[in-house]
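pasting input
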Amino acid sequence: MSTAEATNVDQRVISLRNGTMTTRVLVGGQGDPLVYIHGAGGLMWDPFVEALAGRFTVYAPEHPGSGESTGLEELRDLWDLVLYYNDLLDALELPSARVVGHSFGGMVAAEVAANNPERVSKLVLIAPLGLWRDDAPIPDIAGIPSEKLVELVLADPNSPLAAFLTPPADDPEALFQAAMRMASILHFIWPIPDKGLDRRIHRVQAPVLLVWGQQDGLVPPVYADEFASRLRQAEVALVDGAGHIPQLEQPDEVRERVLAFLA
Amino acid sequence: MKSIFFHLMPYRDLPPDFEEKYESIWVTPPNDVLCDPEKVQQYYKWNLDELELADRLGFDGVGVNEHHQNGYGFMASPNIMAAALSRRTPNNSAICVLGNTLALYAPATRVAEEFAMLDVLTDGRLIAGFPVGTSMDVNFCYGVTPTETRPRFREALDLIMQAWTKPGPFTFNGRYNQLRYVNPWPKPLQKPYPPVWLAGGGSVETWELAATQDYTYSYLSFFGYQFAQKLMGGFWETMDRMGIDQNPYRAGFAQQICVSETDERAEEEYMEHVTYFFNKCLHIPPYFFEAPGYRTRRSTEFAIKTNQPGEIAKVALLEKNWKSLVDNGFIIAGSPATVADRLIEAAKTLRFGNLHALLQIGSMPHDLTEKNITLFAEEVIPRIRHLWADDGWKHEWWPIGADDRSTV
């Protein structure tokens, strides 16, 4: 897709819970509705989301407490977060939609689909958190140096994507935003990202595509089987040459697989 | 000024290559490799002997604190140490527990009960310290969600204060503590409750709490009084803004101190142990210092505005030779006269009336620690004791059962 044809992206600000929470939602594209839930990197209209917008009307909410979305303190736990997503989908007038979630956003998408199976028609989980194996522990992302994080997340740590993972040390505003964004996610997954999805995931009714980078050092690909074995209808796309952000590390392959699945 | 001998209780025999070989002194130093219980058996005895000596020699108080999985201070329960001290401090020093890390305890009635027990055991000599706690202890060692650190602290404090002031039994419906029946036996001996001292590393919210509730605030830093100026300035500005008086006894400060017969001798005797402390005991990677969400949005902004991370990093990079450590105020060291002069300068600069004197530092052996304590008690305390009393300030946060030696 050339730049000239880039999607016109609108920004909506949704007020929820009697005005105690405001959520920024990027909306763009044409077609059936699709909800994209971002991970710890924050809300970005990246090339993958742009590709989704070529076929669907994409709604990309910004997680509470990160960026310009407020009201994290209103949400005590994951159960609150799931109810919040119900409120948000109601406010966006989306009784049902395709849902794509990445990393923590994948965990959230799975929780929403487990709690409200009727709201999710098809589900794409890209390297989701949410399950735990003692023999394949997910590293503590807050307890490692940033260069180590890059090695865990990217198949090629020298790729330009590394810049997204490490805010420049001399940019206080960027450091502040990164800390707030990470805090807003750790709020729901500290100290171990196993909050009971295992006991709910059987409720998901939608067909699920699991996308996993074969070199994912953060959430190792063994978790693809853990998810698949608990779901009624699941297929796994293992992507070589990709780590924890396969949709940006191997954009062509992931785009084709995801769009074919969602069609 | 009140002098409290504050003991961190460090491991005194870490291997020479510790800081090269291991990630951190805190959270992850492998216990089976590095922590020999038979050595600790000896340390605990020395530590208590040293604290008891301070009582006998006339310190105003003795102090202990709480840390977890930490090679420079493994007093997981300071209340156990305080209980041991309660029976062996005949000179009636204050027992300063600074403190119990409230966010770790639910129900926090446990703290209300244990502090009340200590207050009764010590005949009303307890200072009840309530630190917010470090990210290492609260988030990494005890698994508390970083964004819950402060809400848990606040709720625990509320519950404890109610437990000490309201007639029991009563019901407490909190977010983290839900109790049908709160009714601790006994309540504290001191009425309405022991003096409450907060401790922290510079959160705006903690200062405001000290102001609204009339608690003291202690800044527990290892970087000395010069580095602390901006931060304590912020504390006093907050007091001023909130209409609180400038009573110096509202503030405490922790300072590493080395006393010898002469300035030269101090360097000879203490350099090795001070170096051990700064190189090994402060060997903590930056990511453990502050899990994202440990500070509030507001305090994170304040920290960035005042360039706190930058300054701490700068301090960490400073060459830790004797001259630099002394010149930058990381340690106050030398003859009794030198030490007293600099302490008075520090106390006036930061305006504090409670000195947490760190006199056992790093690998410092028992006999040298006793010398440091003795010289401080006999030759420094008499020179600094009257600092604020001469200006007419009264200590309103001193336990009623402890001796007031300000007129000695």
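fyi The first helix of chain A runs from residue 47 to 53.
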